[in-house]
Input
Amino acid sequence: MINLLFTRARRAGILVGSGALLLLAACQSQPDTAADRLPYLGEREVVPRADGGPADTLYATIPRFTLTNQDSITITNDTFKNKVYVADFFFATCPSICPKMQSEMLRVYEKFKDDPRVLFLSHTIDPAHDSVAVLRDYAQRLGIQNASRWHFATAPHDTIFSLARAYYVPAEKDDKVAGGFAHSGAFTLVDSKRRVRGLYDGMNPDEVARLMEDLPVLLKEEAENASQAKL
Amino acid sequence: MRWRAADLLRLGGFLAAGTLAAGCFTDRQNAGARLYAQHCAHCHGDEGQGLKRLIPPLAGADYVAENRNFLACLVRRGVNGPMVVNGITFNQVMPGHEDLTDSEITNLLNFVQSSWGNKGKPFTIREVSEKLQACAGSDGQ
Output
């Protein structure tokens, strides 16, 4: 399942990378003027317009959420308004993949830390243990002094696990695995309209490098959309 | 697993020596490196560098140099609670490794003892099995 997701994401990446954009653009209803666009992941719905004009395509979006971050502040989708962000799922006492994942996330953070348009959101999948105080300590130990750019967030168990699905990160409680949770080390790239634009294996430095190449592509698109909206 | 320049250099050195004995030692070093990549690197880093103030380093760690008697049990049973490594207080959970044999722990520790500038005295399997008795952790293999 995890592999499947990554294979699909990687293929989409290759499509864009190899300039087979015509193919991709052909499946999209709106003509694409800019050369480089990241794909949209997930379900899409084509909605006919009442006036008989060209149909609109609606892409899957991250649902509304309310979380609490390491500074005890409530964060919602609006916290990420007009930003793009990278999300992942971890827990502080994770005996397996998390330290590696978070050190890879730290690489991305360090590269983009001077660009306020990019935010980071790490969700704990062990809210029973990872209190706000635990999350704050974890973040600070990682060198993240406050939540202005990188949120370490918690919420009731069910909220987190249904959000994980929306971000295409398989995660579940599993007493059979070390640490008690089975989850993937995926990083999910989300645009300012809450649409998923990329999925990367956070355990694989090559995949993380691809994320770092995709981020400027998405930022360019966001900037173009913003200037078009102003016209 | 990925080879780093340092590993290749080290391997190259042993191969250049060309004797049977050296070949044998290379194999164990190799096994230690493989076990490290498999069981430790995702936390302590490919170069034993650790991760900020979350995971302590193994490269150049005073803790490794000063706690020789405790290292085998630390790997077997894991460790948690505050610990100071190179002047920094860490306080996270390291899980135990029940699935490793005594000889695998020996190879692992010898890899750590001789990598990234560390210069600890190598362990024998017998010594590791003895130390593991302190935490009832020897499997005699």
